[in-house]
Write a structure and sequence with these properties.
It contains 5 helices and no strands. By secondary structure, it is mainly α. It has one domain. The structure holds protoporphyrin IX containing FE. Protoporphyrin IX containing FE binds next to helix 1, helix 2, helix 3 and helix 5.
Length: 153
């Protein structure tokens, strides 16, 4: 069970953080340089509609498997090393930021694209860009902390 939980945990982290890396670092500049607002906002609406169900799966799987691992490997947070506390703190912040993106600017983006209001859609996309950039940074910090953390405590 521990092995299965670790596998699911790791795959969820790879899909979420890797997906944000591709969207932010690769697709964003490529789309910005080539597409006019109607095509660009429509593209992002569709990209998020395909990516966010995977993020939902990750934001459920990571805490569930993570808390299970904390119990099984360390007998609770009291016995957990510092890098696990860091993971919980940064992971919780990332999840809250994703929930905000999903229920606020992403909802506005979808509504704006539906009525072809490109100005409102552009604003919403700008907010999503900033928050996904922040979440990507937190995710990379978290992964660096996990990779190096166990050798520092
Ligand atoms: C939200 C609450 C979370 C908890 C309670 C938690 C807990 C844990 C625990 C207990 C481990 C095992 C540590 C060990 O093997 O010594 C672990 C491993 C790991 N976690 Fe988390 N985690 C959480 C969120 C996250 C998030 C959001 C990510 C990345 C986006 C993440 C990425 C990882 C990675 C990459 C490993 C290493 C897996 C391995 O060494 O095989 N975790 N986590």
């Amino acid at each position: 069970m521990v092995a299965l939980a670790l596998i699911v945990h790791l795959l969820a982290a790879v899909v979420w953080v890797g997906g944000m890396f591709f969207a932010y670092v690769i697709l964003r500049p490529a789309a910005a340089g080539r597409l006019e607002p109607p095509q660009r906002l429509g593209l992002w609406g569709e990209v998020f509609a395909r990516f966010f169900p995977w993020v939902w799966a990750a934001v459920v799987a990571l805490p569930v498997t993570g808390l299970f691992l904390v119990q099984r490997l360390f007998g609770g947070f009291g016995g957990s090393p510092a890098f696990v506390h860091l993971m919980l703190t940064l992971g919780a912040a990332m999840i809250v930021i994703f929930l905000h993106v999903f229920f606020a600017p992403y909802r506005r983006l979808r509504a704006a694209v539906a009525v072809q209001d490109w100005a409102t859609g552009g604003k919403a996309l700008g907010t999503i860009r900033k928050l996904v950039g922040l979440n990507l940074l937190l995710g990379l910090l978290l992964l660096a902390g996990v990779a190096g953390g166990r050798f520092m405590t």
